[in-house]
Design a protein that fits this description.
By secondary structure, the chain is an alpha/beta fold. The chain folds into three domains: about 110 residues, no CATH class; about 180 residues, Rossmann fold (3-Layer(aba) Sandwich), CATH 3.40.50.450; about 55 residues, Winged helix-like DNA-binding domain superfamily/Winged helix DNA-binding domain (Arc Repressor Mutant, subunit A). The strands form two sheets. The chain has a nine-stranded mixed β-sheet, with helices on both faces. Strands 10-12-11 form a three-stranded antiparallel β-sheet.
Amino acid sequence: MAVETLRRALLLQALPKLTPGQLGQLLGHYGGIDALWQSDPGGWPALRRAAPGLADAFGRLRDRGRSPDPRIDVDWQLEAALSCEARLLCLADADYPSQLKAIYDPPPLLYYRGDASLLQRPQLAIVGARRASGDALRAAGEFAAELARAGLVVTSGLALGVDGAAHRGALDAGGASVAVMATGIEQIYPRRHRPLGAELAARGCLVTEFASGSQPLPEHFPRRNRIVSGLALGVLVVEAALPSGSLITAGTALEQGREVFALPWSAYHSGGAGCLRLLRDGAGLVQSPDDLLAELALLPGSGQEPRAAAPPQAGPATDAPQQTPAEDDPLLQLIGDGRATADELVLHSGLPLAQVLARLAALELAGRVRRHSGAYSRA
């Protein structure tokens, strides 16, 4: 990533007349930050009529090379991002996470620290109360650890309580975790999680749509939550009161077509009332990590270890070799002898993206496919 590209992204984000949706539309049309920056705003598709004055404002921004808002120092933002080795993904990039791109309002820009390839891997979001009970903290850590051992990336929002326990559980199990932030990429919020944030940057991935210098404003958290659910195959709500931010995340997940799961709590446990409400409304009830893995098609059969192949079924003797479900998977035929992305497999198989990603994860765990920066080949 060129430093000038990052600076241009920050300048575009500082343009008050340009909404995130419009920026995403322009990035999709021109194919990237630099091509957009060099384009003729007079020819911007549909936006000239929809956003009067935007083209002129962009022209002034490009000529002056600084934000029209004196409160925004783009040079400081750039230095802050570079100082923590942040990088940038834009909506038009091939490495932009395909799960997130499929939601209604994907963020046009993602700033990240760490391993961006994790954003393309199958993820399960774990969310819950900040003031979590001891049982909830233990459950979050244990679920995260088992899911990580099974090959899933554990995604959460870096908050105190359940979020932090989920990140820690995945990392301690030797797995991977993604933290979605409600601030600029250079600062860890809450401060108590600075050591955890540093570890996530080194062994996982920190990601945010907010420019450097952005503070943890209340309106940032719902936007963060849609990314948490948008990156994931599903969302597990460990513990949630009524009302709570975790229920907002669950609602966003349902709007995005994601699966929602919840732990069952006693009716006398006030901190679990939100989970009971979700279960009443149709969320999947889970009592163990295997429940989740089975729902996501990561287990070949109930009661099996996450990494174990299903045993052959008893039947008449035959000279034909026994095949596991992974070997029979039609996705292998679609991949053929070349490489295919998840989006291409969705197009040619007719399966939903969540199911394709889950089956690719099962094939990878079975040693049948290899992943190459968002594409897959037969092993």
